[in-house]
Amino acid sequence: MTDELPFESARELAARMRAGDHSPVEVTEAYLDRIADRNDDLNAYLTVIDDEARAAAVDAERAVERGDDLGPLHGVPVAIKDLTAFKSGVRHTFGCRAFGDNVADHTTTFVRRLEAAGAIVLGKTNTPEFGHRTTTDNLLAGPTCNPFDPTCNAGGSSGGSAAAVAAGLTALGQGGDAGGSVRTPAALCGVYGLKPTAGRVPQPTRPDAFQNHTPFIDKGPITRTVADAALMLDVMAGPDPRDPFSLPAADGSFLAATDRSVEGLDVAYSPDLGVFPVSAAIERCVERATDAFVDAGATVECVDVEFGHDLGTLRDGVRLPQMHLLAAKVARNLAPSGADFLDAYGEDVPDTFRERVERGREYSAMDMANGELLRTDVLDAVLDVFETHDLLVTPTTAVASVPNGALGATSVDGEPVDPTSDWVLTWPFNLTGHPAASVPAGTVDGMPVGMQVVAPRYDEATVLAASAAVERERPWSDLYG
């Protein structure tokens, strides 16, 4: 096995294993060796399931030797964010010290699908407690460091998966996105992250089957190539009757969409969505990256996005109330029988999460209903853009890096901002449910920058086609290694 193997694409690894050029055992061992070498520095994984991964790799190798029909991800390693139950008996912490010894009692739908397609799960990746912040840090294990600068954070809340993908500690990573938690760490770590349309990847949550719509919470791939994300989405997507928001199967293959031409597409570019402060260096970097669309035959037009409200109104009126309510729901669902979550676990959760729970418990039904009016204004503004354009493109984040220990960026070009929300241009699309990806756009001062690509609802195919066009015109593979 060469040093290049951990950075081969998942498609390439799968093809080489089917051809006998690589073996699943050798590939798995190569990734486990790299995890052993790098994870202490990066803190990307909370749990590595060495024995289970090795056993799965042996089974995968025997299947190749027998000439069995092989799934599209046969033998390909994947990392699962530790907000998702992986398999009964495997450690499942939610990134929280109070649940450090908790084990899953079930396997969630999309993980079953990944394994059925032949993927080999290497372990569970780091996340802030219950995914509640835009950086990855917790009382359980500490911060996940950015592979490009270990003094900086990988971003959140899927920072463990993003760092693992960027550093070659897995071929594929999985994340969850309630406000940018796939796209933000993908941007900061220089990888590709896709939030699908709300409901594309089913999430049969219990005891509350309806919790993933306020905001729309989505599971998605984090990868080094666009085609790998498309292949992973092909496997993860599809209806599940236990999820009332899950969508019917998509028409066609997401992977096939990555070969589609973007010639003739009309791309709307907004440097700030009309309300976000964005670093001038980030704006310049992303604007240069939009030239890739022009080179691929599309047209790009700068547009004004008219939400009708300033950032503070949207943040305080709908974004944060939804996050607070979500935290209160988590506390309700995970409280010990007959006890209050904060009373039982208060010392093992950070003040930031405790505050969210307390505030979420205070909201009235009318508070939330009033927030939905703001949410509707955001939706209508985005729909106005798509009346005349096929895509909406923005920076993913307002800055290129955030130091470890910080809740988020506290200023943008000297302007103070709320670190919970003001530096990520991602969460409006969790209000609306549109598919959105972060595409590597270049670097600023040696740190990766992400470009967000958004399409109409249900049209992940155009997001993937456009992202792949950028990758062909401006390859980013030399970021890794």
Automatic annotation (TrEMBL):
Molecular function terms, GO-annotated: catalytic activity
Organism domain of life: Archaea
InterPro entries: Amidase, Amidase_CS, Amidase_dom, AS_sf
Domain (Amidase): residue spans on this chain: 26-464
PANTHER family: GLUTAMYL-TRNA(GLN) AMIDOTRANSFERASE SUBUNIT A, MITOCHONDRIAL (PTHR11895:SF7), TRANSAMIDASE (PTHR11895)
Name of the protein in its database record: Amidase
Lineage, broadest ranks: Archaea, Methanobacteriati, Methanobacteriota, Stenosarchaea group, Halobacteria
